[in-house]
């Protein structure tokens, strides 16, 4: 059918144009944590451990909050499709209240995570460094969430390049800021790992100020009157943010905690198992940024279609995006199957770790397609502002199916790292099937 083929090609082009900058943004934001880790490692093993433990404690909280703020994307994209320009500005102002609501408890939790560190038995030498690192990074939470909110707002309106440019500048500046605060310079005494926290906070402040300044000056945004006076949170609009955002944040947290739990269990097997897992999961996480970026574009396109009142367009755009996610991850799977040794050589030359890592990269190749399809399907459902049911699906897939299978095979049945990864594959595969089936069910009736 020529018309359908033409629509698919056109939609694929639009998704790549929207998703490309988002993918680049995600990769560069990952680069911030990477540079912190590398530069801390050049100081000492203790500084490296402080940053690693601090991030392990802090990232689930921050990612939950940022995933909650993603609610702004489908909300404003739907308003844009319906040409409700006034509501776009109102949504932006309510989003800033949500930023404040999320920041206050997260700020205090982040500054007191030493309680959890002591409970789980983190080495006493590491706790004070990780705690001071977290206290330093806590000052950047408000600008981090503000930046995330305006970024998702902008992406919901199909403006995706500014975030990419800001992320690129931030990555470069982060290296300089780390050097000054960690090693000392410009009259500032080096603070080691703690300096990385202050540098991150400063970079977050820079990104937020630049992006908000862009929003104030960008002519196409002026019609939305984003920065008009507001009396306070609007219960109706704010409740929509929470209804869409909280389940989205919880769903993301469930997936992160699954992978974090598997990492902890790897540490109970052997040092080599833990190192091999870290390498394989780093490769998988980097590749995951491709379908994740596309999923954000899918959310925008589906939401825009709903605003236009066309469920059939939402269905077409959603499934084109999901198919693209699956196709791209098929290619990454082929890459992982074809050149695992080459990839592993970037990380290590230890023979035992390399051999185990190759085996885990094979497992990572197996879940590439499932991972792409689940995040694509979830992005399409988010465009429909359907996040509560997917949250339940993620809980079932990851914690009632994936984790028990992985624990049984990897720990109880003694299949080791590969057994744990079978659990990951199982959870992602179940989520992929159920998310896509639900999107089919919700869009079949137009």
Describe this structure as you would to a colleague.
Helix 2 packs antiparallel against helix 11. Helices cover 85% and strands 1% of the residues. The chain folds into two domains: 213 residues, no CATH class; 201 residues, no CATH class. The protein is mainly α. Strands 1-2 form a two-stranded antiparallel ribbon. The radius of gyration is 22 Å and the shape is globular. A hairpin with a 2-residue loop joins strand 1 and strand 2. The chain is built from 17 helices and two strands. The mean pLDDT is 88.
Task: Give me some keywords for this one.
446 residues, mainly alpha, two-stranded antiparallel sheet, 17 helices, 2 strands, globular
